[in-house]
Amino acid sequence: MDSNDILDDKDSGPEVQINFPSSVMTRIEEMMGGTEQFDSAEFDAVAYINRVFPTEQSLSGVESAAARCEFHLAGVEHDIRRLVRAQAEQRDAGQKALLEAQRCIGELALQVADINKKAERSESMVREITSEIKQLDCAKSNLTAAITALNHLHMLVGGVDALRNMTHSRQYKEIVLPMQAIMEVLQHFECYRSIRELSALRDQVTAIRSQLAAQILADFKEAFTGTEYQHLFSAEQEQAWVSHVERRYAWLKRHLLAFEESLAGLFPPAWRLSERIAQHFCKITRSDLAALMSSRRSEVDVKLLLYAIQKTYNFELLLHKRFTGNQY
């Protein structure tokens, strides 16, 4: 093998940077006795040969030394060719890997672009769906408001008739909650005052409230002034006499129960109006009986007095059980 073969192999492909393995470098250094001295610009080949072959006797080993050098050189050349081929193969493999990587990058870029397009389409669909949901929410809110308004209108129409009937029948206790509900419904329709039908219903409620206030005031006056009692048990009436005193007490019990069922709940319990009414009744009855017995003294006897006292005592026991008995 000559140096032309090496040159042919070297020139057969593009120039590459050859990095010899440590084993090759070691063999070259063993053969040449180190390579650093050959790389020096001051290297003297004659001095080197004289140092290797210092005497004439040492020249007898020139042929064997040259043979060893040629043998080592052939091995080095073989390693160089092998390394050159390996470098070329690695270069081709690297080129293929680079092309494959570029192809993968291109495919990845296409996939990313496709994903971006799909993401944009998905975002557009989400915006459309969100817009539709908002429209549905708005429609739901409007529908709910319409249903609520219709329910309130139904309550208002039916409530006006109910208020009118309860006012006529003097159901004062039962009318409190419906009246409060009707006023809340009217407050809800405050922004619709311009609607004629609603305005008419509002006027009806106002009229019912005025009628109810006047009626309650009249009932209070009648309950507290005792006009009916004084008329029924006036001095001209036979039932006003002492022999019918239990009728007076029965009248109070009947009217006191009616008052507690209809009107007592409208006042604070601390006022104890039932007890005050009973006390006022007792004062009026005492005054009326005293005047009546004084004017008809001749008709009074022991039996009549005992009868009246017994009925009055029973009535007082009943009042004592019913009320606290505190003095005013």
From TrEMBL:
InterPro entries membership: Vps53 (IPR039766), Vps53_N (IPR007234)
Ranges where the Vps53 N-terminal domain occurs: 42-226, 227-324
Pfam families linked: Vps53_N
Ranges in a coiled coil: none
A single BP term in Gene Ontology: retrograde transport, endosome to Golgi
Signal peptide coordinates: none
PANTHER family: VACUOLAR PROTEIN SORTING-ASSOCIATED PROTEIN 53 HOMOLOG (PTHR12820:SF0), VACUOLAR SORTING PROTEIN 53 (PTHR12820)
Domain of life: Eukaryota
Organism: Heliothis virescens (Tobacco budworm moth)
Name by which UniProt lists this protein: Vps53 N-terminal domain-containing protein
GO cellular component, one term: GARP complex
